[in-house]
TrEMBL record:
InterPro entries: EGF
The name this protein goes by in its record: Membrane-associated protein, putative
Annotated Gene3D superfamilies: Laminin
Source organism phylogeny: Eukaryota, Discoba, Euglenozoa, Kinetoplastea, Metakinetoplastina
Matching PROSITE patterns: EGF_1, EGF_2
All copies of domain EGF-like, residue ranges: 124-135
Length: 234
């Protein structure tokens, strides 16, 4: 029952009680005369109607339960009670059909601006990395959702994820191949390459040597023979 209805019920009880007391002080009885019979009867009937629970559904919107006050469903006032709204004083009901902004009743913990026009439409549209009705749950990083298949582990909270890559992979999400290739890690004179960067092993053709097979290995008279040689092979 809303505060407004509780107040009206108390007022009617006071009116009926005051009428009877006035009659007694005047030396009469509490029974009204014919003139006041209809009025008193009408007051008692109204009081009885207000005391009876009429049809008015309870509807849940997220974590806020809305309950109509006594009256028909179309005439009742939907209220959100104190125990479900922390920013409301005790024994205070809120008409959820007024045009208060969602920010008046909904907190998204600075991770989203509440959206919606009326209270029944209020919801938090969370920023990246946050979830929950009030955007107060930070999402943890996972290898499945935040890293490439080349990751072996993920740490941190979204959007600041740290992926630990397998040796064959690199990059912030382990999506860049780290396997050595002849084109990228050896000269054009390598016949094969093995390993993962930065530890690449280039296998050179016989005429070439060096870490990346970029140094000529062909024999020369100057380097491989004495000054009396006229030629060299190999």
């Amino acid at each position: 029952m809303s505060t407004r209805i509780r107040g009206n019920t108390s007022s009617l009880i006071v009116v009926a009680s005051s009428f009877c007391n006035a009659r007694r002080r005047a030396g009469g009885t509490a029974t009204p005369t014919a003139r006041f019979d209809f009025a008193l009867l009408s007051l008692l009937q109204l009081l009885l109607l207000l005391m009876l629970p009429l049809s008015c559904p309870t509807v849940a919107y997220g974590e806020v339960t809305l309950e109509c006050s006594r009256g028909t469903a179309s005439q009742g006032v939907a209220v959100a009670h104190k125990e479900l709204l922390d920013d409301v004083d005790d024994d205070t009901d809120i008409n959820i059909f007024d045009e208060r902004t969602c920010a008046d009743i909904l907190s998204c913990n600075s991770h989203s601006a509440p959206t919606g026009t009326y209270n029944i439409d209020c919801r938090c549209s969370c920023d990246e990395g946050w979830e929950g009705p009030n955007c107060d749950i930070q999402q943890q990083c996972t290898t499945v959702n935040d890293c490439h298949g080349g990751a072996i582990n993920a740490s941190g909270n979204r959007p600041n994820c740290d992926c630990t890559c397998q040796p064959e992979w690199t990059g912030s999400s382990c999506n860049v191949s780290n396997v050595c290739t002849i084109t990228d890690d050896c000269s054009g004179w390598a016949s094969n390459v093995t390993g993962n960067r930065p530890n690449c092993g280039c296998t050179c053709q016989p005429e070439w040597t060096g870490v990346s097979c970029n140094v000529s290995n062909v024999c020369t008279v100057d380097h491989d023979c004495s000054g009396n040689a006229t030629g060299v092979s190999g």
